[in-house]
Amino acid sequence: MIQVFFTITLGVWLLNRNESGWLTRLLALLRVPLFWAGALALILSYSGMQLPAVVRLPVETIGDGLVPVALITLGVQLGHSRVFGSLRQVS
Questions:
Q1: Can you tell me the distance from the alpha carbon of 59 to that of 90, in angstroms, rounded to the nearest whole number?
Q2: How confident is the model at residue 4 (pLDDT cuts 50, 70, 90)?
Q3: Predicted TM-score of the model (pTM)
Q4: Which residue has the higher pLDDT, 22 or 55?
Q5: At what angle do helices 2-15 and 33-47 cross, to 10 degrees?
Q6: How far is CA 82 from CA 30, 54, 79, 85, 87, in A?
Q7: Of 45, 26, 44, which is closest to residue 35 (Cα–Cα)?
Q8: How far apart are CA 59 and CA 26, in angstroms?
Q9: Closest by CA position to 2, among listed 34, 47, 40
Q10: Looking at residue 30, what is its pLDDT?
Q11: CA distance 81 to 90
Q12: How far apart are CA 7 and CA 64, in angstroms?
């Protein structure tokens, strides 16, 4: 999550480096929803507040399924890749 957060936020900042100034880049960064989600997560984490169970349980369930879905997606992408096409025969 930290890698994705920095990739997206720093990526937006760097992509807008040709804009007129730092204020324009900052405004572009503030339009990224992940920035606000990360800020809210940090506030909730450090304040000790917990989400209500009706929100927390579905979010935890989705989070628990993230790694298997990511691995399946990666496998499908590698299966359709030309670079790894001969790897299927080797394995």
A1: 40
A2: confident
A3: 0.52
A4: 55
A5: 140
A6: 38, 44, 8, 5, 10
A7: 26
A8: 29
A9: 34
A10: 85
A11: 15
A12: 22
22 pLDDT band (50/70/90 cuts)? confident
Are 35 and 29 a contacting pair, CB within 8 Å?
Answer: yes
- CB proximity list for 16: less than 8 A, separation 6 or greater: 24, 25, 28, 29
Q: Amino acid identity of 88?
A: R
Average pLDDT over residues 18-42: 81
Helix (H) or strand (E) holding 72: helix 66-80
Q: Residue 43 CA to chain centroid, in angstroms?
A: 18
Distances 14 to 8, 33, 51 between C-alpha atoms, Å? 10, 17, 34
Q: What are phi and psi of 82, to 5 degrees?
A: -75, -30
Q: What six digits make up the tokens of 54?
A: 């009706």
